[in-house]
Amino acid sequence: MTQEQDDPVWQAAWTWVQREFDRTRFDAAARLELEHWLAEDPAHRRAHRQAAQLWDLAGQVPARASRGGDGAAATAHPEPCD
Fold this sequence. Notes:
Elements: H1 3-6, H2 8-20, H3 28-40, H4 42-59
Helix pairs in contact: 2-4, 3-4
Region (Disordered): 62-82
Protein name: DUF4880 domain-containing protein
């Protein structure tokens, strides 16, 4: 296990970030609950910021191409550089 997996503050922060991006269920009451959690301890705010950064970085990773009929992953070839 990684250090983050063993850290309950990190786990809570990661859960909060996931909840924030569930637009259908993250309402004003959830926002207030998050704000209270963040205010409880500076470590909560730090962990939340790190989790949000990880979430943002993960969103920048290109999705895997769908598999072709032969089971091989379809790959895009970059244009040659001049």
